[in-house]
C-alpha cells in the first residue's frame, strides 16, 4: 500500500466516528488488535510517516488480557528496536538486566555459559513483565498524533473491493463500515481477522504445561538467567528485581495439576529439587499461572489487501 493509496474512509451510509479524518491520503493501514504486536506495528508505521488506525476491543484505561504478569526476556536488539519506536525500557524499574546465561542438562555433563562482560556488553537484554511492556507501548501510542484508535470496537467482517478492503466493525456498539488499503490482523491466536479471511490454521496440542511464577532467592542472582533441561521439560529462571526470578517450568499435565494444587512450601521444595542449588535457596513463591502448550501456525498469512502479524513466531513485522 503506497502513501498515495486511498486510506480509511466511512462507507455504506453508516455513522462516521468523530475522530476520523475523511482525507483519504492522511490515513493508512487498519490494524485489528492493540496488544503488544498491534501497538508495536502502529508505532513502527508512524515512525515511517504512515498514519494508521487501531481497532481496540477494550475501552480506555482497561488493559487487555495479554497484559498480565507473564514476563518477557527481551534481547538487546529488541530493546534497541523499541527505543527507536519511542519506547525506552533500559531503566524500567520493573526490569532487570541479563548479565549472564547458563544452560545445563540434568544428568548430562557439559554446560553452555555466556557472560555479557566478556562480549563487551552491559547485558544481553532485560526481563520485565509483559504488562509493563504493554503499558509502555500504550503510552507511546496514546501520545503519537499519527495513530488513531477506535475503542471499544469489535471487528465483524471484511471483503476485498478492488484497491481497497471493506471492513465492518461495531464501534462502541454502533455499526461502522470502513475502507482501507491494507487490513492487518494482529488479534492473537484466536484471530477473528484470520477466520474472516478464510485462512487455515494448524493446531497441535501438547501434553505439557508451562507453570509461570515469581520466586524469591535468599541471595542476589547477579543478573544470571539459567535454563536446565530435565526429562519432563525445561526449567528456566529469569532475573527480576529484588532477588526475584521469573520461573518457567514445563511439566506433563498430570504433574502440573499436582504442583498447582500444592501449598507454597511443598511447591518450593519440589522446584528446588528439580532445579538444584546453583542460585541459592528458593524462599518465596508468588501466584502460579498455568499455560497449556499448543503449537499453532497459519500456513498462509496473506490475502488480498490483508496480512496477519504476530501469529507465527511472535516476531513483529516492522515495515510494509
List keywords for this structure.
six-stranded mixed beta sheet; eight-stranded mixed beta sheet; disordered C terminus; alpha+beta; 320 residues; 21 strands
Q: Considering DSSP H and I runs of 4 or more, what fraction of the residues is helical? A: 10-25%
The biggest beta sheet is recorded as: 8 strands, mixed
Structural class: alpha+beta
Determine the mean pLDDT. 85
Helix-strand pattern, N to C?
Answer: EEHEEHEEEEHEEEEEHEEEEHHEEEE
Q: Could you name the ranges where pLDDT drops below 50 across 5 or more consecutive residues?
A: 1-26, 313-320
The strand count comes to: 21
If helices are DSSP runs of H or I spanning 4 or more residues, what is the number of helices? 6
The dominant shape is globular
Distance from first to last alpha carbon: 8 Å
Tell me the strand percentage band. Answer: 35-45%
Taking all Cα atoms into account, the compactness measure Rg is 22 Å
Amino acid at each position: 500500500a503506497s502513501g498515495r493509496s486511498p486510506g480509511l474512509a466511512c462507507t455504506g451510509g453508516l455513522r462516521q466516528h468523530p475522530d476520523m479524518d475523511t482525507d483519504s491520503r492522511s490515513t493508512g493501514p487498519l490494524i485489528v488488535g492493540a496488544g503488544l504486536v498491534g501497538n508495536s506495528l502502529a508505532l513502527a508505521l508512524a515512525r515511517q510517516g504512515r498514519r494508521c488506525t487501531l481497532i481496540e476491543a477494550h475501552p480506555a484505561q482497561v488493559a487487555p488480557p495479554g497484559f498480565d504478569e507473564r514476563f518477557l526476556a527481551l534481547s538487546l536488539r529488541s530493546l534497541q528496536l523499541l527505543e527507536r519506536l519511542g519506547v525506552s525500557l533500559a531503566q524500567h524499574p520493573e526490569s532487570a538486566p541479563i548479565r549472564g546465561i547458563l544452560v545445563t542438562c540434568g544428568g548430562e555433563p557439559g554446560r553452555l555459559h555466556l557472560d555479557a562482560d566478556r562480549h563487551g556488553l552491559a547485558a544481553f537484554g532485560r526481563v520485565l513483565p509483559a504488562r509493563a511492556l504493554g503499558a509502555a507501548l500504550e503510552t507511546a501510542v496514546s501520545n503519537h498524533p499519527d495513530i488513531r484508535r477506535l475503542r471499544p470496537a469489535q471487528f465483524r467482517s471484511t471483503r476485498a473491493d478492488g484497491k481497497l478492503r471493506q471492513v465492518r466493525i461495531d464501534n462502541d456498539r454502533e455499526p461502522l463500515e470502513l475502507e482501507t488499503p491494507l487490513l492487518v490482523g494482529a488479534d492473537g491466536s484466536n484471530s477473528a481477522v484470520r477466520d474472516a479471511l478464510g485462512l487455515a490454521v494448524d493446531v497441535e496440542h501438547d501434553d505439557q504445561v508451562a507453570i509461570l511464577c515469581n520466586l524469591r532467592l535468599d541471595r542476589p542472582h547477579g543478573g544470571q538467567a539459567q535454563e536446565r533441561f530435565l526429562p519432563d521439560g525445561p526449567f528456566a529462571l529469569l532475573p527480576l528485581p529484588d532477588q526475584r526470578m521469573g520461573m518457567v517450568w514445563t511439566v506433563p499435565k498430570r504433574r502440573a495439576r499436582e504442583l498447582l494444587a500444592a501449598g507454597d512450601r511443598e511447591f518450593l521444595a519440589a522446584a528446588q529439587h528439580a532445579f538444584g542449588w546453583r542460585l541459592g535457596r528458593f524462599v518465596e513463591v508468588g501466584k502460579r499461572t498455568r499455560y497449556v502448550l499448543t503449537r499453532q501456525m497459519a500456513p498462509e498469512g496473506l490475502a488480498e489487501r490483508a496480512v496477519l502479524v504476530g501469529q507465527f513466531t511472535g516476531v513483529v513485522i516492522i515495515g510494509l
